[in-house]
Amino acid sequence: MTNGCIVAGVLAPHPPHLVYAENPPQNEPRSEGGWEMLRWGYERLRQKLDSMSFDVFVVHSPHWKTRVGTHLLGVEKLSGLSVDPIFPNLFRYTFDLRVDVSLSEKICEQATSKGLVAKMMRNPQFRVDYGTIISCHLVRPQWDKPIIAISSNAAYFDYSNDVGQTEMRVLGEATREAIEASGKRAILLASNSLSHRHFTTEPELPEDMSYEHIYHHGQYLWDMQIIQLMKSGRTKELMDIMPDFIDQANSECKDGSLSWLLSSLAFPDYPAELYAYGTVIGTGNAVVSWFPKG
Questions:
Q1: Exposed, middle or buried: residue 155 (CB in 10 Å: 0-12, 13-18, 19+)?
Q2: Per-residue pLDDT tens for 225-272?
Q3: Most buried among 73, 142, 250, 276, using CB within 10 Å?
C-alpha cells in the first residue's frame, strides 16, 4: 500500500447564507443572490480542487457539538433534512451522502491511542449538522466523494481554551497519522468563521447587501492579522495568539476546527492561498487553502 497524504487543507466557513444565495436544488428556500465575494472565492477554490486527485473529505465542524469526547461518523450512508436552527428561513437542505467508515475508524483508533476520548457514531438516523453539510457543499456541490465528519468536543467550554486547543493539536496529529497509514488522499475542511460576533436581526430581505458589513472595526483588525499570518506561513505564531483572538473577536475558532486543521498540516511554514474574505451578518469569513508539498 502506498502512503496516504493530505493533499489540501481548507478553512471553509459555513454561513448558510452562501448556500441560500446559490439556490441549489437540495435547499428549499429561494434567494436573489448575495455575498458574491465569498461565493466567487469558493468557485475559484473548486476549480483548483477539481484539478487534484483525492479520495475523501475530512471535515471538523463547530456545529456537531459533543459533550464527552470527539465523535466521528460511522454509518456508510446518511440522508435526511438538515435545518439551521438559527436561520431555518435560509437553510432547509435535503442531504444524501456517503461516509468513509474505514478511515473514520482509523482516525478514531489513532485518537484513542493518544489518550483522547473518541467514539464512533453508529446511529443510521443521525441528522448531519449544517456546518458539515454547508462546507462540503461549497467545496464540492456534486457530492461525488465520501466524507468523514468530526465533532467539536466541549473541552473549551468545560475546561479552558488551553485544554481545548491542546486536544485539537493531538486530534490533528491523529488525523494525519491515520490518513498516512490508510493509503488514501484526503482534503481537510475546517468549517468555521474567523470573527464571530454577529447581528441579532436581519433585514426583511436577507440578501440585501446594503446591510452587510463587519460587526465592528476591532473584529476586522483581528481578522486581518490572522489572515496575514496565514499568508506569510506563520501558523505557529497564529496558534500563539489564538487565545487572544478567540476572546477579543468572539472567534468561532474556539470550537477547535482551525487548530485541528493546522495541526493536521504540521503547522505549515509556507504561504496559504487566500480565495476570499467577506462578512456575513457581521461575521468575518475567509476561504483559505494550504497545499502541502510532496
A1: buried
A2: 999 999 999 999 999 999 999 999 999 999 999 999 999 999 999 999
A3: 73
For 105-116, the DSSP string reads: HHHHHHHHHTT-
How far, in Å, CA of 157 to CA of 163, rounded?
10
Confidence (pTM) = 0.96
Q: Give the residues across from 5 on adjacent strands.
A: 185
Grid cell digits, residue 210: 446594503
Residues in a beta bridge with 285: 278
Per-residue HEC secondary structure of 42-59 comes to HHHHHHHHHCCCCCEEEE
DSSP string, 146-178: -EEEEEEESHHHHT-HHHHHHHHHHHHHHHHHH
Tell me the angle at which helices 235-249 and 217-231 cross, rounded to the nearest 10 degrees: 170
What the chain holds in terms of domains, given with CATH numbers, is: 5-290 (3.40.830.10)
